[in-house]
Amino acid sequence: MRLYVPQSGIFGRRQVDKEDVVRRKSEIVARYGSWTAHEIDLGGGISTLGRDFEADKLTRIVQIVADLSGKAFEDLRILDLGCLEGGYAVEFARRGARVVAIEGRLANFEKARFAKEVLGLDRLELVLADVRELAPERWGRFDVVLCLGLLYHLDAPDCFALVHAMAEVATRLVVIDTYVGIGALEPFAYRGRTYWGRRVREHDPDDPPERRLADLWASLDNVWSVWMAKPSLLNLLADAGFSSVFVCEFPFEPAKPSDRLTLVAVRGERRRVRAMPKASEAVWDARLPFRERRRPSRKQRTTFVVAERLAHLVPKRLRRLVKRLWSGAHPQSSGEGG
How many domains does one find in the chain? Predict the structure, then answer.
């Protein structure tokens, strides 16, 4: 039986033998196990995982790239770091982008290669390699770099080094989806800077290399990883040279944990403000404290809310008198800026 697989972007329709696809998929599962993360439609009612999974995240990432890359998909060169089973790489390749997808585990690599071959994605290049070896001399440069579900699997100093390496190979966007550390944080030194994060165990120290590789949702080999605190991750992106960083909240991911973020870092030119040049320089030199310490605005602080409610118990004429007396004694404190 023949089926036709629809191809988006620059591709047309490709004829595929359905029985052959089913057979090859069974062989992949028998040798490397079932798909665990990426649902990929192979056409003719055949898919990899068999259920929708991470559709909301995939939608978010595609929309970010479409909105912020500044190019049509067909003109983009995209790097997918730690591509897992290839779901994101396949999506962008089907849209016509040139994609290089790096994966460190053979099982995931073979599943991604199977999807590539079935869909006939000539613009998708799959590489079995370690992302910790990322360098522009080897891979070149990319309009978009995807680091999805990867950064929090690296230990220090590799997690810091990868951010700097992504800044070197990216010409426009780096999209990072990662957990951030909260609670018990400890300092880590890198390139003369101090960053804060939480150590998280990836493997048992006694696990042999083959057992670590078999754990598809953990690090390749390091026993511990560092989940950077959000302020430190933002400081690191600034130190790596990005010109702006955004947190993406929409398209929504309703089930996303509160300690996981989608960040978009832009590789642009840092602009100095002409009206206030000294203040502008101070902005670029600023760093965030390792814990969030910002307070809410005055009108939402508990003391203000309580005082306002109590004030309504005082007769209006007396309140007006007190306000006039206060304004006369403090002429510069009549309002709050911004």
Answer: 2
Q: What is the CATH number of the domain that holds 139?
A: 3.40.50.150
pTM of the model: 0.86
Co-location of 311 and 234 in the same domain: no
Query: Cβ(141)–Cβ(169) under 8 Å?
Result: yes
Range of the domain at 135: 2-285
Tell me, yes or no, whether 99 and 172 share the same domain: yes
pLDDT tens-digit map of 282-313:
888 889 998 877 778 888 888 877 877 777 77
Dihedral of CA 143/148/150/152: which sign?
A: positive
For residue 212, pLDDT beyond 90? yes
Please tell me the distance from the alpha carbon of residue 290 to that of residue 235, in angstroms, as a whole number. 9
What string of DSSP letters covers 4-15?
A: EEE--TT--EEE
Q: Is position 152 within any domain?
A: yes
180, 183, 177, 182: which is closest to 253 by C-alpha?
177
Contact (Cβ atoms closer than 8 angstroms) between residue 42 and residue 118? yes
Alpha helices in 170-242 (DSSP H): 209-214, 230-239
Residue type, 233: L
One domain, residues 214 and 306: no
Highest mean pLDDT of the ranges 5-9, 257-261, 332-336: 257-261
pLDDT value of position 325: 77
